[in-house]
Write a structure and sequence with these properties.
This protein has 189 residues and is α+β, with helices and mostly antiparallel strands. The chain is built from eight helices and eight strands; from the N terminus they run ααββββββαββααααα. It has a domain of 105 residues: Jelly Rolls. The strands form two sheets. Strands 1-8-3-6 form a four-stranded antiparallel sheet. The longest helix is centred in the last third of the chain and has 27 residues.
Length: 189
C-alpha cells in the first residue's frame, strides 16, 4: 500500500503506529473533473493520492483560472491555508483524471497529534516541505524560462504529463497555449 510506504519513509513511526493511522483514512473516488475542494468550502480533511492527477487553481479577478500546482500519486492534498485556519478555501483542487484518494478528517489528525508527539514532528516536516515547494515555485517563475519550467515538469512527472490538458499546463507555466505548443515542438521527448 502506498500510504504505508509514504508514512514509513519518514522513519518516525513504528509499523503498529502506521497500521493504526491507516485505519483512520477512508477511500474516496473522484471522477475526472470533480473537485476535492472548491472555493469558499471549508477544508477539514487531508487526502493521500493513490491514483489520479490533481490541479490546484484559483480564479483571477478577470475570471481566468490560474493553475499554480499539480499533485500526483504519492502526494498529499489539501487546501492548506483553509485547513489551518478553518476559513473557506480560496482555491479549487480538481481531479484531472479519475482518482482514488485516502482521506483523513481533521478531528482524526488531532487525535493522532494528542496521542503521539511523532505526529507533530511529521506535520512539521510536511509544513516545511510545503514551504520549500512554494518557495521553489516562486523562484522558478522568476528565474526560469517557460521552456525550462516545462522541461522540469516533464522530467519530474513524465508518466502523468499526458493527463494534463494544454490549457492547464499553459496556465501553470504562465504562458499562452500557443506559446506552449511552440515549446512542445522544440522539445524532443
Amino acid at each position: 500500500m502506498q500510504l504505508k510506504s509514504f508514512l514509513a519513509h519518514f522513519n518516525l513511526f513504528t509499523e503498529a503506529e502506521i497500521a493504526e493511522a491507516v485505519l483512520l483514512f477512508s477511500k474516496r473516488t473522484l471522477k475526472k473533473g470533480e473537485y476535492f475542494v472548491q472555493e469558499g468550502q471549508k477544508c477539514s480533511e487531508v487526502a493521500f493520492i493513490e491514483s489520479g492527477v490533481f490541479r490546484s487553481f484559483y480564479l483571477a479577478p478577470n475570471g481566468n483560472e490560474m493553475t499554480y500546482c499539480f499533485r500526483f500519486p504519492g502526494d498529499m492534498a489539501a487546501a492548506y491555508s483553509a485547513f489551518i485556519t478553518g476559513n473557506g478555501s480560496v482555491e479549487y483542487i480538481q481531479a484531472l483524471a479519475d482518482a482514488e484518494l485516502l482521506v483523513i478528517p481533521k478531528d482524526q489528525i488531532d487525535r493522532l497529534l494528542a496521542n503521539n508527539p511523532a505526529w507533530i514532528h511529521f506535520l512539521k516536516i510536511i509544513a516545511e516541505q510545503q514551504y520549500l515547494e512554494l518557495e521553489g515555485r516562486v523562484f522558478q517563475l522568476q528565474r526560469d524560462s517557460a521552456q525550462e519550467r516545462y522541461q522540469n515538469l516533464i522530467e519530474d512527472q513524465p508518466e502523468y504529463i499526458q493527463q494534463i490538458s494544454l490549457q492547464h499546463l499553459a496556465s501553470y507555466l504562465g504562458i499562452t497555449q500557443r506559446h506552449l505548443s511552440r515549446i512542445r515542438k522544440e522539445i524532443v521527448l
